[in-house]
């Protein structure tokens, strides 16, 4: 028996398990790799890349079968076209990759590492906040449709150029007059930077998020669309129902109360609080817009 084991050990040396030594660096690398894979999968799941990814998995299974059964002709074609496939994937996923890089840039990782206790200036004054809240509530009661985009870190100049320059202090009456029906400036969005209305009648990108309620019209889809590509806060007043909704980071909170509206505005005004916790949770759509 002993001789048999010695023979097996001598002839099947490749079956011996190597000694494994795990260092703290190895553990850190495993954790970092696990976090990266999790973030990539989470990003793919919440983007249009999810359906494309399922198609790529099916293709991957076929490629694996080709290599397993050694289909030399198909293997040659795959090897020759691998570079083109990578380039095509980068083109197909370009919008998702751009959003991912923009999201990474907005996180301000360097600022958090070297200045963790830094207090950011308020985006706008209390007077401006009260004027916006008062104006939106009056428009909601009168069922006057409105779309107001408040700039944060991402510059909105490219969207300002699609509208008409205003450059005036934010007041409730100014907002009401802009969005009054049948006036020259009522169609489109108003952009607010700091304490000033910079432009009106601005065109915004529409969201193509299929999970948004079919009840939502162009105004709501534009509000969500600009929040998907920038870190701005969008206030939407429905012309049909008079309800106020808020869009931020691609998430829409519909039919907010006056108290909740003010709470969200205060959180957005103080950028330090906005950085510490999300101000919106994705909620199930309610009836109406």
TrEMBL record:
SUPFAM superfamilies, per database record: YojJ-like
UniProt catalytic activity: 2 ATP = 3',3'-c-di-AMP + 2 diphosphate
GO molecular function: adenylate cyclase activity; ATP binding; diadenylate cyclase activity
Keywords: ATP-binding, Cell membrane, Membrane, Nucleotide-binding, Nucleotidyltransferase, Transferase, Transmembrane, Transmembrane helix
Domain DAC positions: 94-258
Pfam families reported for this sequence: CdaA_N, DAC
Record EC number: 2.7.7.85
InterPro entries: C-di-AMP_synthase (IPR014046), CdaA (IPR034701), CdaA_N (IPR045585), DisA (IPR050338), DNA_integrity_DisA_N_sf (IPR036888), DNA_integrity_scan_DisA_N (IPR003390)
A single BP term in Gene Ontology: cAMP biosynthetic process
Top-rank taxon: Bacteria
NCBIfam families the UniProt entry points to: diadenylate cyclase CdaA (TIGR00159)
Subunit structure: Probably a homodimer.
UniProt similarity note: Belongs to the adenylate cyclase family. DacA/CdaA subfamily.
The protein, known as: Diadenylate cyclase
Organism for this UniProt entry: Porcincola intestinalis
Gene expressing this chain: dacA
